[in-house]
Amino acid sequence: MTGPAAAPVPSGIDRMLARARDRLRRIGPHEAAAELAAGDALLVDIRPAAQRAREGEFADALVIERNVLEWRLDPLSDARIPEATGHDVRWIVACSEGYTSSLAAASLHDIGLPRATDLEGGFQAWRAAGLPVTGGEEPPGTR
After folding, report:
1. What's the pLDDT at 11?
2. CA triple 38-42-53, angle to 5 deg
3. Backbone angles phi, psi at 71, to 5 degrees
4. Where are the beta strands (DSSP E) in the chain?
């Protein structure tokens, strides 16, 4: 007679993030901006509305919150956006600091969008690089 099976050891979020990133060729803000300017990619901001209001927004990004991302970008989905024209679209996914976007981009690979990637450092890196942003609350102590 055998005892109860051992429970699987959870891999943890750090391991999950590393596995997701192993599947991507992540890009920095300037490379992303160049692809956007050339018309070779579309930038998707997955941050929630409250975070965008607080931090500011990319000057030129599609806003698709994380909870509906796959349905909006899958060209086979009835809920897709007009820009989701095929499986070869280059999607650059961005969040605040580049963590959630890595998981989201890997999920896009899983649904057949192999050119998807994410923005290293997210919105924070984009803004720090001096690239165009709009809005956001004024940081404390700047008056």
Report:
1. 74
2. 120
3. -65, -35
4. 42-45, 57-58, 62-63, 91-94, 117-118, 133-134
Q: What are phi and psi of 88, to 5 degrees?
A: -100, 5
Angle between helices 100-110 and 12-22 in degrees, nearest 10:
60
Q: Which two tokens stand for residue 19?
A: 């596995």
Q: Which amino acid is at 42?
A: L
DSSP-assigned letter for residue 75: T
Are 44 and 94 in contact by the 8 Å Cβ rule? The answer is yes
CA 56/CA 17 separation, integer angstroms: 25
Token duo for residue 42: 């579309």
Instruction: Please state, in angstroms and rounded to a whole number, the distance separating the CA atoms of residues 121 and 97.
Output: 5
* Whole-number Å distance between alpha carbons of 65 and 6: 38
Binning the chain into helix, strand and coil, the percentages to the nearest 5 are 35, 15, 50
Torsion over CA: 106, 28, 83, 61 (sign)? positive
- Residue 141 has a pLDDT of 46
Owner of token pair 């300017």: 37
The Cβ of residue 143 has, within 10 Å, a number of other Cβ atoms equal to 5
pTM for the model: 0.88
